[in-house]
Amino acid sequence: MLSNEEFIQLLKAQITTSVGGQASPQDVEKFIDLAVDQTAVLQDLRVEKNIKSSLNLNSIELGEPAMVKATEGADPNSADVVTPSFSKSSLTPVEVLMAYDVTFSFLEQNIEGDDVNEALNKIFAKRFGKDTVQLIFNGDTATSPVSSRTDKLLVILDGFIKQALADSTVNDYTISGTDYLGTIFPGMLKLLPKDYKDQRSELAYFVSADVYDAYADQIGSRATALGDMVLVGDYSRALTYKGIQLRPVFGLGDTDIILTLKRNLAVGYGRDMTIGRDIDNRARVVKVTITAKLDAKYVVGDAIVLGQP
């Protein structure tokens, strides 16, 4: 156990006492990777890093069969020439800020070893990841009034649900009741265009933690091997419906369900990040200020089924 004097010297040796400055591209990538690694949902999504100002998310769709029998020496009939459809959206990260006051007593009790910066980064990256997930799914720039900390988070940008509600190409499903196994999940799957239905390993139902547990209870009540597994096993990454995985999303409402390709949902981080750390010996706190840039968009609206009441 470090003495108080040794602890202060360690802080001074490892934490910049100036306002701080631009993080290197390597440090930015490491911090984002740490946030993703500690947040299960982000591991499933398309994550773009080091965006300078904006990044186009382009998709080429071939909805009809394109293969025909070839005839030597002859061009294909004009009716046999397929014109792809293009979907385009762009990630334009906006600046966000996180400010923390970390007391010396907290650090003394919770920091193991000598690497203070690494320990702090793990703590902040985990919160950064959770905030990112809640924002990219639930964000609404029209949030009013903006009074709670959650309101201040959600007003930053429009998330996937807000975007989908305004998109006529998204497939809408009306949720009624709580029969996920017999009604809701099959009803949503029926609305998904056939071009995506065979990509079962790439699809996911994004649901709230409560919906995830309710579905687990439904399966667990069945006298099957799967029911037994749910009751006594580790099902945190194992629940599926007809081969499609369920993903619990932090902060998602119980009445919001998204069925889509996992990589159809994209989150983008700007390459500019600042991490400032200041030691206030009088108040016995380390003041940490992190600025970053992020945005979220989906690529193809037609590949989304949005379930709401």
What do you see in this structure?
It is a single chain. The chain has 309 residues and is α+β, with helices and mostly antiparallel strands. It has one domain: Alpha-Beta Complex (phage-related protein like fold), CATH 3.90.1690. The protein contains eleven helices and 14 strands. It has helices spanning 4-14, 25-37, 40-44, 104-110, 116-138, 149-154, 160-165, 180-191, 194-197, 209-220, 225-232, and strands at 21-22, 46-51, 55-61, 85-91, 94-103, 171-174, 203-207, 240-241, 244-248, 257-261, 265-270, 274-280, 285-298, 305-308. Strands 1, 2, 5, 11, 12 and 13 form a six-stranded mixed sheet that branches. A six-stranded mixed sheet has the order 6-14-10-7-9-8. Strands 3-4 form a two-stranded antiparallel sheet. Strand 12 (274-280) and strand 13 form a beta hairpin. Helix 2 (25-37) packs across helix 5 and helix 10 (209-220) crosses helix 11 (225-232). It is globular. Residues 12-19 have low confidence and may be disordered.
List the helices and strands and how they pair.
Layout: H1 4-14, E1 21-22, H2 25-37, H3 40-44, E2 46-51, E3 55-61, E4 85-91, E5 94-103, H4 104-110, H5 116-138, H6 149-154, H7 160-165, E6 171-174, H8 180-191, H9 194-197, E7 203-207, H10 209-220, H11 225-232, E8 240-241, E9 244-248, E10 257-261, E11 265-270, E12 274-280, E13 285-298, E14 305-308
Parallel strand pairs: 2-11, 6-14, 7-9
Antiparallel strand pairs: 1-12, 3-4, 5-13, 7-10, 8-9, 10-14, 11-13, 12-13
Count of DSSP strands? 14
Structural class: alpha+beta
Helix content: 25-40%
Query: Which stretches are poorly predicted, pLDDT < 50 over at least 5 residues?
Result: 12-19
The CATH architecture designation is Alpha-Beta Complex
CATH topology: phage-related protein like fold
What is the terminal separation in angstroms? 55 Å
Helical run tally: 11
Radius of gyration: 24 Å
Whole-number total of structural domains: 1
User: What integer is the average pLDDT?
Assistant: 85
What is the CATH C-level name? Answer: Alpha Beta
In terms of DSSP E residues, the strand content is 25-35%
